[in-house]
Amino acid sequence: KQWYQRRVAITAGIIAGTESNSVDTWGLSFVYPAIIMALLAVVVFFFLPTTPQSVNLPPPNQTSKDEDEERLIRSIQVGNESDDDDGEDVDPNSIPAIGFGKALMLPGVLEFSFSLFFAKLVCYTFLFCLPQYIAAIEIGGKQYKSDKASDVSSFYDIGGIIGSIVCGILADKTGCNAIVCIIFQIASVPLLLLYYMYGGTSMAAQIGVMCVLGFFSNGPYALITTAVSADLGTQEAIRGSAQALATVSAIIDGIGSVGATIGPYLTSSLIGDGDASHSSYKYVFTMLMAASFVSALCLGRLFIKDVRQIR
After folding, report:
1. 57: which of 63, 97, 139, 181 lies 20 to 30 Å off by Cα?
2. Span 166-176, pLDDT tens digits
3. What span, in angstroms and rounded, lies between the C-alpha atoms of 104 and 232?
4. In 3-state terms, what secondary structure has residue 138?
5. Residue 105 half-sphere exposure, CB side, CA atoms within 13 Å?
6. Range of weakest confidence among 78-87, 104-113, 256-265
7. Are 109 and 121 in contact (CB under 8 A)?
8. Which of 199, 249, 256, 255 is nearest to 228 (CA)?
9. Where is 15: in which H helix or E strand?
10. 64-78, 112-126, 241-255 — which is least confidently predicted?
11. With contact defined as beta carbons under 8 Å apart, do 242 and 188 qualify?
């Protein structure tokens, strides 16, 4: 899912820059990705199995007939036939859905939700505003048009794809989601400053710092919306409930999406109505650095918990 979103984002960014030179065709930057998503939605609707039973597979955690017989024999041998009840299957869809308030109170949900709020603010501000920023500044003493700027901005998404993969691998290896997220988010703060101050010295510096920045800023965003949401949805209080997992995931991603909406709006307000230039983006980068830091700060309690588990 995250890989697909990144590919659509790269495609949309390149098309937007290419078409922005023509007032009459700028809307194609929305039409093309919409067509791609609509076609894939049709494929998912007709070909994605909704349950294991639809492709002649057993439900999750269901044991085979032979395994049930072996369990019964062992129970009789030890004189405890009650052990056979432990293998009783539970349909995840039969467990009642968790309430919204109870889901909010689950450990880690609020922390990761607000962390994702600020992480998405940073990522989506770059996604929508980076081509305009590149077109507004001089890179190596040369100013590039919007179509070239959109091509260059795609390197931020390329770095984000790699960062998302690496962040997920590190989280799986260590089992410490909060520690991995905080390291990536804190690293984004000096990289934002480095990009603002030295990204325009040359095209190599622009692309290099942009890739590294995308690597660190997109990793936590992808991790929280996927693996972390799934982990939080398997807590003891809601274990086995498919509806509860959906509720937790919706809360985290929903709060994060508010940040994705606010970021570009604040950017336009900070830049103002005048012609955009390097200096006019000073407060924008200040906002992004503050957002990255606060995003890491939201995970402080979970960070301490992970450190104690390591010890």
Report:
1. 97
2. 988 998 888 88
3. 11
4. strand
5. 6
6. 78-87
7. no
8. 249
9. helix 2-19
10. 64-78
11. no
Picking from 219, 227, 214, 229, the residue whose alpha carbon sits closest to that of residue 184 is: 219
Cβ neighbours of residue 212 closer than 8 Å, sequence gap 6 or more: 159, 191
State the residue for tokens 């274990």.
239
CA 174 to chain CA centroid, nearest Å = 19
SS3 of residue 143 by DSSP: strand
Report yes or no: 224 and 299 within 8 Å, Cβ to Cβ: no
CA distance 12 to 15: 5
- In the chain, DSSP assigns E strands to 138-139, 142-143
Query: Which residues, 6+ apart, have CB-to-CB distance to 181 below 8 Å?
Result: 115, 167, 219, 220, 223, 224, 228, 296, 299
Residue 92 token pair = 């995840």
pLDDT in tens, 136-161: 888 888 888 877 887 888 899 889 88
Mean pLDDT (the chain, rounded): 77
Distance separating alpha carbons of residues 126 and 264, to the nearest angstrom? 8
CA distance 205 to 198: 7
Residue 123 contacts residue 218 (beta carbons within 8 Å): yes
